[in-house]
Amino acid sequence: MKKNKIFHVISNTHWDREWRLPFQRNRQMLVDMIDEVLNILTAEPEYKAFHLDSQSIVLRDYLEVKPHKKDLIKKLVKENRLLIGPWYILPEEFQVGGENLIRNLLLGHKVCKEFGGVSKIGYSPFSWGQISQLPQIYKEFGIDFIMFYRGVNSLDSKKAEFLWEGADGTRAVSSRFSTMPRYNFYFYIYRPVIHNESIVDVEYKLSKGGQPFHFADIEQYEEDYFITKPLDNYHEENIIPQVNSIIKDQANDFTTEHAIWMEGHDSSGPNVKTVRIINDIKRLMPEVNVKHSTLEEYSKALLSSVDKDKLKVVKGERRSSQYDRRSGNLYGYTTSARMYLKQLNFDAERWLQFYAEPFNVFSGLLGRDIQDNYPELAWNFILQNSAHDSIGGCSLDEIHFDMEWRYKQAVEISKGIFERALKHLTKHINTSNFTKSNIDSSIYIVGINPNNYNRSEVTEAVIDIPKEFDKGGFTIEDENGQALECQPIAEGDYQPVLEQMIDRPLYLEMQRYHAYIKLEDVPGFGYKTFAVKPSEEYYNDSSVIGKEQKSGLSLENENLKVKINKNGTFNVENKLSGYKFSQLGYFYDEGEAGHAWVNIPTLPIVTTLKSEPEISLIENGSLCAAIRVAHNIEVYASLSDRKEANEV
């Protein structure tokens, strides 16, 4: 194994922007870490390079604090001694939208370009599993080598290198690294030599020495300890046995003469003694060809020597669980941890991707000036929340409070973009066809369709009619004079504010109507205009969806039939396909003794299957009907109460 092998030592960090500490506190550690990186790269020419963990947002975070270091960073990036990108931030691939990932790489490339270089390696030390489109996405960014370890194990590919085939058939040479994938050199060699610590040593004994720092006051005593004067040790005696150990444990992993040794860990920084370790390995073990390298050098060497025809083909989405120390845990429970974050992410992406951006462009086609950074500002807030430990919901409460604020900013920006775009679009709408059809109206509503296909559906709308025109109701007609079906909900007085830049804010006297309206054939990526005509009555169908019978309440239209059972569950029949589903919609509560990464359910389980709820028809019309099912159930107040009940 030692002969004819080239061992590439890759110095790096795995930097979670926020996880154990909120961003602002964690950034102070980041600044200290990058300061040390710059010091070492400047003072020690033998220290080859350092990788900032496949992301570029850390440079923006650092330079907000130390902007005077920008020229030095650009110099080191151009010299390939400081490696950045291709990502902006390290995302969780399954918990954000596809466009989110594309924008992440786009912004990452844009930031890297500011500094003179982007690392074109698909180094993915993040995400609990890999989406099947990743080879295709990377290819479009000019990236042809992928490295990841979560979602692929040694059963999928016995060797470290394999061909990964994506959803569209795109194939890329990929690597799952080797034993203890992204930190093997760090644990096998670095820690034993620098600290005399083994893989399993996680306790620091103060009897070893070093000067600790810790707050004792009542407000800050829960803060971490820090070693302000670290020990200056070096255990050369551990080099030979530890090098032999790592070589033995990954003996049969690699398909070429090139092996990779990763030196880095979560929140870790560089150590100038890495140079000494590598030189001592060469001196003590001349048969071991070891070099301080970069992912670019390793990738180039591997791709030039690998035999693709002999590589195992691994296909599609990668969700294989950890099998041995050659793979990583998927931490699948993060998919449901803090579900409200996933909902906020979806809402923010929805507003920006499907409303703000496309209609902003459409308004630009009609002459509006859209040369601004509003969309990028919104995406930046969303992308900051896409980091795997952030959207994964497995961080401190304070971190997720910050995320809620970022989502709020993204949605507010997006809604503002959308509003301004529609204000410009609607003033260009030609309503002359209504006049030709003898439709007398000065009030119009416009149905906007953000999808790329025609849509006909019932929508909920709030329509204001000036009191000077109001007649107690209204009808809605298309340009051919055809009335739309309408189901009123409520009405009342309203005095909205009227904004205009050339006058003070005023108010309007309005009669507000809340109703369901059935819109027909609104074109994809387009709109359809309808006239609102004040009237003494509504145009609506007398039929109703909800039915009250001796057997109970039910809802039925041309597509579905829903029957409510006595216990509050419901049965659904698809009248088009004939499929039937029963006993849906009951509530289920179980105890939770785990955490964000692990689900440990605890008995007893509480359900509403034997409940006697109050069931009532609260809304009923030709377009919409709703049934309210109100349960009164008792759940356990705490885990200890549940455990106590289970023991009885």
Written description of the protein model:
This protein has 648 residues and is of the alpha+beta class. It is 30% helix and 24% strand. It is built from 15 helices and 29 strands. It is elongated.
Write the layout of secondary structure elements.
Layout: E1 6-11, H1 23-43, E2 50-51, H2 57-65, H3 70-78, E3 82-83, H4 98-115, E4 122-123, H5 134-140, E5 145-147, E6 161-165, E7 171-175, H6 184-195, E8 211-213, E9 226-229, H7 239-249, E10 258-263, H8 273-284, E11 289-292, H9 295-305, E12 313-315, H10 339-365, H11 374-384, H12 388-391, H13 397-426, H14 432-436, E13 443-449, E14 455-466, E15 473-477, E16 486-494, E17 497-498, E18 506-507, E19 510-522, E20 526-535, E21 546-549, E22 552-556, E23 560-564, E24 570-574, E25 580-584, E26 588-592, E27 601-607, E28 614-620, E29 625-630, H15 639-647
Parallel strand pairs: 1-10, 1-11, 2-3, 4-5, 5-7, 6-12
Antiparallel strand pairs: 6-7, 8-9, 13-20, 14-19, 15-20, 16-19, 17-18, 21-22, 22-23, 23-24, 24-25, 26-27, 28-29
Q: Classify the helix fraction into a percent range.
A: 25-40%
Globally, the shape reads elongated
Radius of gyration: 31 Å
User: What's the tally of helices?
Assistant: 15
Q: CA-to-CA gap between the ends?
A: 60 Å
- Low-confidence runs of at least 5 consecutive residues: none
- Cross-sheet strand order for the largest sheet: 4-5-7-6-12
What's the total count of β strands? 29
How big a fraction of the residues is strand?
Answer: 15-25%
Q: Major beta sheet, specifics?
A: 5 strands, mixed
Which class best fits the helix and strand makeup? alpha+beta
Q: Whole-number average pLDDT?
A: 95
